[in-house]
Specification:
Length: 90
């Protein structure tokens, strides 16, 4: 019988980016500020090409999902770890 050779397993792409504690604290602070201000912000999201423009309406501590309502009143639920940056909309 011929010996079976194992093909190397493809390296799985991470579900979320690995970031240090300081980056996560800054994003948490910016999210809290964005929710309290109820102003439109631009969110850069991991694995998304376009910015998400919207207002933070809810931050769910249990699921770590951030609810962002866009101008069409559609609520996008984005995982906290997927938010790369938050900026003001001019």
């Amino acid at each position: 019988m011929a010996a079976k050779t194992k093909t190397p397993a493809k390296k799985k792409e991470p579900k979320h980016l690995d970031r240090d504690e300081f980056d996560l604290e800054e994003i948490a602070y910016a999210l809290t500020e964005a929710m309290n201000e109820s102003k439109y912000k631009a969110f850069s999201i991991y694995k998304k090409d376009n910015l998400l423009l919207g207002i933070v309406t809810k931050m769910d501590a249990n699921t770590k999902l951030i609810h962002i309502k866009d101008k069409y009143r559609i609520v996008h639920k984005v995982h906290f770890l997927d938010i790369l940056s938050i900026s003001d909309v001019d």
